[in-house]
Design brief:
- The structure is a single chain.
- With 84 residues, the protein is of the alpha+beta class.
- The chain has one domain.
- The chain is 31% helix and 24% strand.
- The chain has 2 helices and 5 strands; from the N terminus they run ββββαβα.
- It has a 3-stranded antiparallel beta sheet with strand order 1-2-3, with helices on one face. It has a two-stranded antiparallel ribbon with strand order 4-5.
- β2 and β3 form a beta hairpin.
Length: 84
């Protein structure tokens, strides 16, 4: 696994904060965020085209909009790894 650290939410402490990585080998984004509430999870399930429950091995997380530039950077890193 080749994780490339991209960034931490600048408005939180360095111990408990949303974080973004790019796994350039797997070509995936890795996100750490605040766990969604049961109400958020239910709303996501209700609005999903699949109309099913979220599997136990998946989770709904929240990432603040101020982290969009970091997510874009991680997307770019993953896309570049596909070209190399």
């Amino acid at each position: 696994m080749a994780l490339r650290f991209v960034g931490i939410d600048p408005n939180t402490d360095l111990e408990h904060c949303p974080t973004v990585w790019a796994d350039v080998e797997a070509r995936e984004l890795v996100l750490q965020g605040w766990k969604g509430s049961p109400e958020l999870r239910a709303a996501c399930e209700a609005s999903s085209p699949a109309k099913g429950t979220i599997p136990d091995n998946e989770e709904v997380i929240r990432i603040p909009a101020r982290m969009v530039p970091m997510i874009r950077e991680a997307c770019d890193a993953v896309e570049r790894s596909a070209v190399q």
